[in-house]
Design brief:
This protein is an all-alpha fold. The chain has one domain (3-77). The chain is built from one helix and no strands. The longest helix is centred in the middle third of the chain and has 76 residues, at 2-77. The chain is rod-shaped and about 110 Å long. It starts with a helix and ends with a helix.
């Protein structure tokens, strides 16, 4: 009976160690996935900032044209 319990105990330890190693491997893969997701999100953020900057420069250009038109109109009124 004691021999059977020892074998069962060893088998349980081996299985627990295999499960621990598998869990560790899965965590490492998840960390790699987290890094990839972070890089994608940073790249997406950079693209969004570029688009917003381009839209803002277009708006500023149009506003500058309007102000120039108003300046010339006010100059003619003087």
């Amino acid at each position: 009976m004691n021999n059977f319990m020892n074998k069962l105990y060893v088998k349980a330890l081996v299985t627990a160690n295999m499960a621990k190693n598998e869990l560790k491997k899965m965590c490492e893969e998840d960390e790699g996935m987290d890094i990839i997701v972070t890089i994608v999100l940073v790249a997406l953020g950079i693209v969004i900032v570029g688009v917003v900057a381009r839209i803002a420069s277009d708006v500023i250009g149009k506003a500058d044209q309007q102000v120039s038109g108003l300046d010339s109109t006010f100059a003619q009124l003087k």
